[in-house]
Amino acid sequence: MPLCTFPGLSVFDAKCPNEKWVTDVTEFKVNGKKLYLSPIMDLYNGEIISYNLATRSQPSMVPTMFTDELKQLSKDENPILHSDQGWQYQMSRWQRWLKDSGIVQSMSCRGNCLDNAVIESFLGTLKSECYYLNEYKNVEGLKQDIIDYINNYN
Q1: Is residue 33 over pLDDT 90?
Q2: Domain Integrase catalytic, which positions (predicted)?
Q3: Residue 2 domain-assigned?
Q4: How far is CA 32 from the centre of its chain?
Q5: Are the C-beta atoms of 58 and 97 separated by less than 8 Å?
Q6: Could you tell me the CATH number of the domain that includes residue 89?
Q7: Is 12 exposed, middle or buried (0-12, 13-18, 19+ CB in 10 A)?
Q8: Under 8 Å between Cβ of 98 and 79
Q9: Burial class of 36 by CB neighbour count within 10 A (0 to 12, 13 to 18, 19+)
C-alpha cells in the first residue's frame, strides 16, 4: 500500500466528533529505561480519546488503544486517522486492521512534522510541562504523571 496523505487534513479541525483523529508515538527515558506514549486526539474538541503507555515500542501498542473507541462508533462513522510515517503506521497488518475497522488512514508527507502539528504540539507541551520539569526515579512515576496530565488536559 503506498504511503499517502489525505488532502483535507491540512485543515486541523473537524465539524463533528469522530471525524478526524491524529496520533503519534513519543519516547521518554528514565534511568536507562524507556516509556512510549501513543495518544489519539479527536480534532473536533482536542480531547485525547485514547492512549497507550508501554515500555516497548511494538506493533501491538498502537491498535490496543482503539478497543473502546471502536465499540462506540456508529456504522456510518468512519474517522480519518492521521499520523506521521512512523514504522508502526506503515505495517501492512496495521493498514489492514484500520481498513477492516472502517478507519481511513492518512499519513503526513515524509519528514514534515507540520503535517501532524496538532498532536506534535500536544506531545511537546506534555513534555515541557510534565517530563522536563521533574526528575523521575522510575518509569512508574513518569507513567502516573502522564496519566494525571492527560486526565487534567481533557
Answers
A1: yes
A2: 13-154
A3: no
A4: 24
A5: no
A6: 3.30.420.10
A7: middle
A8: no
A9: middle
